[in-house]
Amino acid sequence: MACNSDFVTYVVDQCSGAGDITFRKMFGGYCLYCCGKIFALICDDLLFLKPTEAGRKLLKTEDLRPPYPGAKPYFYIAEVDDRDYLTALIKASCRELPEPKPKKKK
Fold first, then answer.
1. Residue 46: how many CB atoms within 10 A of its CB?
2. Per the domain annotation, does 103 fall within a domain?
3. Residue 46 belongs to a domain
């Protein structure tokens, strides 16, 4: 599940029109966040978007596959070069995703 950091940076830049995009290295891959919500994973230099109905309606082709062995299926997004497409897809998907849970105080 190793990822090239240049690919991760490129994808984050491509998604930047959707809002405040951040990422965190996890389990050999990366989690992508938009305004604090986890919306995608990057594993093996491939982009996987959390499935939502709004996202499904905007997909050019639906390709559900797990980002790593044992994971739930995500939408595999092959077209990472189309900035407008990614922005629309992420905005629509994030509207349906739940707000992040507040962190517990120690």
1. 19
2. no
3. yes
